[in-house]
Amino acid sequence: MKNDISIVLSGEAGQGIKTVELLIIRALKNSGYNVFSTTELMSRVRGGNNTTEIRVSNERIEAYVDKIDILIVLSKNAILRIENRLTKDTIIIGQDSFIEEKYKNSQYIIKYVALSSLAKEVGGLIYSNVITYGLLSGIFDINLNLIKESITRHFSTKGKEITDNNINAVIKGYEKGKELKLGIQVEKDEKIKNQVLLSGTESIGIGALAGGCNFITAYPMSPSTGVIQFLARHSEEFGVVVEQAEDEISAINMIQGAWYAGARAMTTTSGGGFALMEEGISNAAITEVPIVIHLAQRPGPSTGLPTRTEQGDLNLALYAGHGEFPRIIFAPGNFTDGIYLTQKAFNLADKFQVPVIILTDQFYIDSFQSIKSIDFTDFKVENFVTRTDKDYKRYKNTEDGISPRGIPMQGDGFVRFDSHEHDEGGFITEDPDIRIKMVDKRFKKLESYSKESIDAEIIGSKNYKTLIVGWGSTYGVIKEAIEKLNDNDLAFAYFKQVYPLPNNTKEILSKAKELIIIENNATSQFGQLIKRYTGMEFTNHILKYNGMPFSLEEIIEKLKGMQ
């Protein structure tokens, strides 16, 4: 097995698959392997069937694949749901009792490893996940001392006996992995060791800290909850106030109060929670209070598929709130962009006094990959607060639409805040002429922002005839498909800013003879947005909305079918 190997761990919720994933991807990265992992979960705390895919490659990888080279079976009924992804070359590893007879008598290569028995030798079934970690480490010939050190770090708070038992467990698994002799031949790269391994969740959290976030509140809702958990873990280190709100209405109102008082605040939620925030978003728009919202999409309507992925909430983010007002929407596709865009969101919210929304999804949030280290000295927390004088007008009608934003008690002026329409001083008004001026003033901000707009990025041939358009988490799979196809007529336009449309949108689309859009939704929401503002239609749409991310194989197959 060379160059690119896909390993899938399949078992029940509660078996510790996440622990195995975190341990092995760190060990692989620290050994010099390119690694990418993503999790597919059923909506339950215990039981069911969950899978984690770990790709190991000699090249940078950021996409999910259908193929399974090595399947680790950790429970009964762990194969049936992913049977269609198996090939004659798939190696199935697991204990005899977990593998059904029909697979034993078929074309698959089976390696029997009694994981439960090995765990009992150490002290109980609880050590099965560490045995599995050792097994994979042995298969990839990872340095045993590195593995022991990782176990010691991971279990250091549990006491010496438990740590020693886990070291014994990982050694047993490691020896079994070496015995299998699977012939792994993936090239290593020493530079990978110096990279940083992180999840999509962490990229948003790190970006928030880099943006000066010092207050976060949220009501827990998968898949967004990890962001507030990340900031809570680092709250003392970075001086962040963390509040679990009683509901999403409170959360959106709290961050408005925080920004009004001079903080830099954020809330994180998913579609159902964002729907509850709509009135608060409108309130922030008319009061011109900055807010930053992270919206981690999952399939709806209603509860929908709460642990799956979809790009179904672009329209929600775009049109949320009553009335008409400007906003900015980012959709990072890789973790470096996740950090940069989230950091930028705070500065832009502060400067333009508008809601800034960061769109991700379950696939993005729950995936892991390594990125090059970032020099955070390049980041600047830009503060646009004005010290007020006695004649201060909170909503002064300026040429660029941006009124001076004061903070209460920081100056001599009175900082008014009202949800009604108001005049320049912040006093309630129903005057029709003032109403027009205030609406126009708020929309001028989009024109002002156009000078700082983030262009769509072209990946692939610069002399393309066919242009593929994607946004957000489809970045990795489209980029890898383009590289694999190696077609001089083909390019990918990656949109990390989805609203307002980047300044170069019409220019790059007009160059193509054929336009293809790829989206994880049923109605091509971004395609509709592009058509609305440019009048341009797509030749073909590749859409997926079954709760799963696009695989590399299906994108390549569909693109080949369109040529």
Q: Which class do the helix and strand fractions yield? A: alpha/beta
What top-tier CATH class of the largest domain fits best? Alpha Beta
CA-CA gap between termini: 31 Å
The residue fraction in helices comes out at 25-40%
State the major sheet: 8 strands, mixed
Low-confidence sequence ranges: none
What's the average pLDDT?
96
What is the CATH architecture assignment of the largest domain? 3-Layer(aba) Sandwich
Please indicate the percent range of residues in DSSP E strands (runs of 2 or more): 15-25%
Which helices and strands appear, and what pairs or packs with what?
Layout: E1 4-13, H1 17-30, E2 34-40, E3 47-57, E4 70-73, E5 91-94, H2 101-104, E6 109-112, H3 115-122, H4 128-139, H5 144-154, H6 160-180, E7 196-199, H7 200-210, E8 215-218, H8 225-233, H9 235-238, E9 241-244, H10 248-260, E10 265-269, H11 271-276, H12 278-287, E11 291-297, H13 314-319, E12 328-330, H14 335-352, E13 355-361, H15 362-365, E14 368-371, E15 385-388, E16 405-411, H16 432-449, E17 457-460, E18 466-471, H17 475-485, E19 490-495, E20 497-499, H18 505-510, E21 514-519, H19 525-534, E22 540-543, H20 552-562
Helix pairs in contact: 1-4, 3-6, 4-6, 5-6, 7-8, 7-14, 10-12, 17-20
